[in-house]
Each structure stands twice: as C-alpha cells, then as structure tokens.
Design brief:
Pfam families: PS_pyruv_trans (PF04230). One of its GO terms (molecular function) is transferase activity. This protein has 450 residues and is of the alpha/beta class. The chain has helices at 51-68, 81-85, 104-113, 131-146, 163-173, 184-193, 218-224, 270-294, 308-317, 334-341, 352-358, 372-381, 396-411, 417-431, 433-444, and strands spanning 39-43, 73-78, 94-98, 116-119, 151-156, 178-181, 199-201, 235-239, 249-250, 259-261, 264-265, 297-302, 324-328, 346-349, 365-369, 387-389. The protein folds into two domains: 3-209 and 429-444, 3-Deoxy-D-manno-octulosonic-acid transferase, N-terminal domain (Rossmann fold, 3-Layer(aba) Sandwich), CATH 3.40.50.11720; 214-427, 3-Layer(aba) Sandwich (Rossmann fold). Strands 3-2-1-4-5-6-7 form a seven-stranded parallel sheet, with helices on both faces. Helix 1 (51-68) packs across helix 15 (433-444) and helix 4 (131-146) packs parallel to helix 5 (163-173). The longest helix has 25 residues, at 270-294. 50% of the residues are buried.
Length: 450
C-alpha cells in the first residue's frame, strides 16, 4: 500500500459508536524491544494552567496505560514544570522533563529516546495562538519520521494557517503514521490541505474526563461565601478570551508587559488594544443585562491563566461587578473547573473546552468563536443557530442576536436539552474510540497490548 495516496475520515453516525476500517497503518517504523518497558513521549501544550489541556493530558495518560499496561514509561516535556506538577504526579514510570522555549534540540533528543510519539495538543494544526507551537509539533513529527519512530496525532484539531504554515503542515503532517482528528471539520481541512497521512475522526479526549465527586458544589460553595443580595440566584458563565493578544510572535526583544515567555511576545498595537477594550465592553454589557434582567450572578471563567487580565477588564467595566466573580484555572484544577461549568444555568463561551466539559450536564450554551474549533463542534452538535463567528460578525446587530439567544435560553433552557444530551452521548462514544485506534495501530506492528 502506498501511504502517500491514502486519507480517510471515519464518519460519525447519529447514535453510532462505529469507526470504519479505513486504510491499514504504515509499518515502516522500528519495533521496540518488548522485553523492556515501552517508552511513550507525549508532546503538547503541557503545564500552561489550561483547563482543556489538563483534561486531555490526564485522559490520554489513562488511554496509554489502558493500552500498553501500567508499566509503560511515559515522558511529558513542558515549558513550565511547576504548573504541570500541579496535576500530573511524577512516578517511577512517568517522567516530567522541562525543556527550553527554543525547543528543537530537546525535542529531537526526546523523540530519539522513545518508542512512540503522541502529539497530544488539541490545537495541533493551527497557528491561531502562535506558529512556534505548530512548528514544535511538526518538528516532533519530522524527527519521529527521521528516526523511524511511530508518531500519532491524538484527537487533534486543524484551523487557520498562514500560506507558509499550510505548506509546512502538508509536508510534515503527511509524515505522521496516523492522525486522529477530533471533528469532521478538522479531518476535512487536513485533507483539503493535501495531507496524505491516514486520517480518522472521533472526538476530543476531554469528553472522557470525569470530575471528582467532591467538586460538584464548587460554584455553590464559592458563591455562598460572597456577600451578595443575590447569593441564592443561579449563575450564568462567560468563558472569555482576548482575541487581540494572539498570535504570539517571535521577537528578540519587546515590551516586558507583552512578554509570554522569551522570545515569544503577545501581539499588541494601539489598534489591537482598542479592539480588546471594545470586546471587554461587549462582554461586560452582556453580563450586566443578565444581572439586571434576570437577577442572575455571573461567573467569568478563565479556562487558561492567560485569560485573567481580560476577565479583570470585563469585571472592571461591569456596572454590577458585585454580582460577578472570576474563576481561573490558575486557582482551580480541571476537576473543580468542570464542576463549576456543569453547575451553570447558561454558558456563553469563546473557549472550546468550556463547551466540551459542560456538555455532560447539558448546560445550555452559546459560542462566540474566533477560530474553527467551536465551529466544528457546534456543527456536529447541530447548534449552528447558537454559534457566532467573531471573525466575521462583530457588528452591533450580531451582539443583539447573542443577547436574544441568551434571553431565550435563560427563559427556556429545555429547548436544547435533548440535543445537548444526545450530543454528549455521541461524542463520548467516539472519544472512547481513540484508545481503540491506538490499540489497533500497535497491534498492526506486533506490539504487546492489553
């Protein structure tokens, strides 16, 4: 079989847990010494105090151990060791490895030392956040191909790319042994780019994540401690993102306030700052209307620590700020953030994983998207009428439509309850197929699996 003529996207059928047989996997890779512990490298956005990445990583570690057994040796590289240790415990067979922000030599060395490479970042094939992150994943793929080590992109997404990055993704992602896309839209995007690796589509691993029982009442407990005249009211969540910080760009120097991690700086200009301020005002106005019209409280949700400054800006613009509270992934781990999300009466989100992690509780939701990730998810949920693409829909009229949908779902939350329940069921079934694809992939190579 000619690997470079094969692409495939397994169709998600309503209520079905089937994934088509598709193409066989490429076998042109070195088989590990099965007498020793197999070594697996997980390359992703690890240690960023990002709720979605945290949920994915925990679920993927469990998948790897379910397939290869508890003795499998797992290595997780990170730019922030301290943050990663908050939710990943280093053990005899799990190692956390800090790497430099200039990652090329470190990643190459790690790939060479391992038997299997998994790309575990959801936003894998996009440059929305920064080209550097994309290049890290493509570089890991290139190194794996060079060393003849099997490489899988594990439940990932594809989004906006510059002309150069489209070329790089087509060339380097085609060297991947298997790409598991988390939405059909992502799979289609990769095919249209000309990526020739085998492609399946399932669902995001975060759908498998389960919160701890003791975290079910986090939202209620926090609000009970606040001195509010509406302390017994329901809570509407706003998962906000400052679209105008991104992408992070590579510069030898810049303003210290714009520094992410040298040599990476947030994109800032007078125009961007003005647009960011305007966006914060839009969110604040929407939050105030929820408080004034319905007597609800507002949770400003920071799914990544980097969202905090923008959330504070929104809070500072609210007329009813005493009825709002910021919940940040810096303070609350994924289990607690999931408990908060699933306790909301309504979610308005610009974060993909806020939508995913709230879905189990069928929390009514509206998306204000700035890249294709939420678009792909909402298309599969058949929720297009509750989706707003901020890249093309910034007008007052669109915010009026968002307000109209907020009113509708607060007043009639049961309207989409069945759709959300069914959507969660279907995505959970498909997310569980990720480890089955991993198992089949390794069996094809004669690996010992459970």
């Amino acid at each position: 079989m000619d690997l470079f003529k094969v692409t495939d996207s397994s169709k998600r059928e309503k209520g079905s847990n089937t994934v088509d047989n598709g193409p066989k996997f490429s076998k042109n890779r070195i088989k590990p010494d099965l007498k020793q512990n197999v070594k697996v490298l997980l390359v992703g956005y690890n240690g960023a105090n990002n709720t979605g990445s945290e949920a994915r990583l925990i679920s993927i570690v469990n998948d790897v151990r379910n397939v290869l057994g508890p003795d499998v040796f797992i290595t997780i590289p990170t730019l922030n060791e301290k943050n990663l240790r908050r939710y990943i415990k280093e053990e005899t067979n799990l190692k956390i490895v800090p790497i430099s922000s200039i990652f090329f030599f470190a990643v190459k060395k790690l790939v060479k030392e391992h038997d299997l490479v998994l790309l575990v970042e959801g936003s894998c094939y996009m440059d929305t956040w920064t080209s550097a992150l994309l290049w890290a994943f493509l570089w890991a793929t290139r190194c794996a191909s060079s060393f003849k080590k099997p490489c899988i992109a594990y439940s990932v997404d594809a989004g906006d790319l510059s002309f150069l990055n489209k070329f790089l993704v087509k060339r380097e992602a085609s060297k991947t042994d298997l790409i598991i896309a988390r939405t059909e839209l992502a799979a289609d995007r990769l095919k249209k780019l000309g990526v020739t690796a085998p492609i399946k589509h399932t669902a995001d691993n975060a759908f498998i994540f389960q919160k701890d029982v003791e975290d079910e009442n986090v939202l209620k407990d926090v609000w009970a401690k606040k001195s509010l005249h509406q302390s017994g009211a329901g809570v509407v969540g706003f998962a906000v993102v400052d679209f105008y910080l991104w992408p992070v760009v590579i510069m030898p120097w810049g303003r210290s306030r714009d520094l992410y991690k040298w040599p990476y700086y947030f994109s800032r200009s007078k125009k961007r700052s003005r647009e960011s301020d305007e966006l914060a005002g839009r969110w604040a106005a929407a939050a105030d209307r929820v408080v004034e019209k319905y007597g609800k409280n507002v949770a400003l949700l920071c799914m990544e620590e980097l969202d905090e400054p923008f959330a504070r800006s929104v809070l500072g613009k609210m007329q009813n700020s005493k009825n709002a509270h910021i919940f940040s992934s810096r303070e609350f781990n994924t289990s607690k953030m999931t408990g908060i999300l699933q306790s909301l009466e309504l979610l308005v989100t610009s974060r993909y994983h806020a939508a995913v992690l709230s879905l189990e509780a069928a929390v009514p939701q509206i998306a204000v998207a700035h890249d294709p990730r939420l678009i792909g998810l909402y298309r599969e949920l058949e929720m297009d009428s509750y989706l707003f693409d901020y890249r093309t829909e910034k007008s007052d009229k669109k915010w009026d439509e968002i307000e109209k949908n907020i009113n509708e779902l607060i007043e009639n939350p049961d309207k989409i309850h069945k759709k959300l329940k069914q959507g969660y069921k279907e995505h959970l079934i498909c997310a569980k197929k990720n480890k089955e694809l991993l198992r089949d992939f390794l069996i094809e190579r004669g690996w010992e699996v459970r």
